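Give me the fold.
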Amino acid sequence: MAPEKSPKTSNFCQGLSWEKPLELFDDLTVQLFPSGHLPGAASILLSYRTSQRTYKLLYTGDFSLSNLQLVEGLSIEALRGLSPDILIIEGSYGTIRHSHRRQQEKQLMQRIHECLTHGYSVVLPVPTLGLGQEILKLLRSHHQFTGRELDIWVDGEVANACDRYLDLLSEFPLSVQNFAKHQPLFWDERICPRLRRLTPQQRGKIGQNSCIVLTDDLTTLYDEGYLLSGLWVILFPASPNEGQTLESPEIMSLMERVSIHSESYVLAEHSDGRNTTQLIHNLRPQHIIFVHGSTINLRDLTNLEEL
């Protein structure tokens, strides 16, 4: 018999409505705003009231202003003119500017298409949450892949995360819900490209025909013999915040002992320099703290003359 949950543990988590102030104490409230980074990712506004004035602190967390495949971007309109006393904002990409999100998607789809056309299979190391599910939605809906005779295999915890996304489908943007009404968002063996979980039965078989594999553990995938058949290309996310990259120690060690061609691509789930400064100008904060980035990138942001 499972032990009964104590009141402390059963009340530990509480769902909060977006943008609706919640009073934590008589003088302190919190509001959550969708930050556009991942489904459910939130920016947090704390408001502290005194007899003289109200102090505001906004923590963006990881954020993106661009609409992704499965997430709508952080709304500037909801925060415009907020004028927080303190803004704590991520600086993952520093002052680097990226091309438009749809252009990034187009370039990645084109590169995968080229690899498959030339007889290669493609493996994409991705984090458990976020980037992998974005790419799967792209592959299911992009004109270069819809109806294509192709198998897409999803490995490990990335597959489990897809299940959690499906559990929460009613909380996703209407465009995603409408897509899922016409064809499965993820698992599908009927409509091409077929989307399947990677199982031990495919060991030594995948790669005989060109296919795509998404994994959050490339090293184990290789060591267990999944990439031994056929020709392979590994496409790594260029961002240091998006899972295993070419600079990851375990990947550098792996690449020293295998002869698989590798490249990197940009499909950013964090704000670039242009969008970071755009948000700051619309918020008009009194003080700014940059976090979540390399020392060089954060220094570049703090040295911007326009700030």
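Residues 101-265 form a domain with the Rossmann fold fold (CATH 3.40.50.10890).
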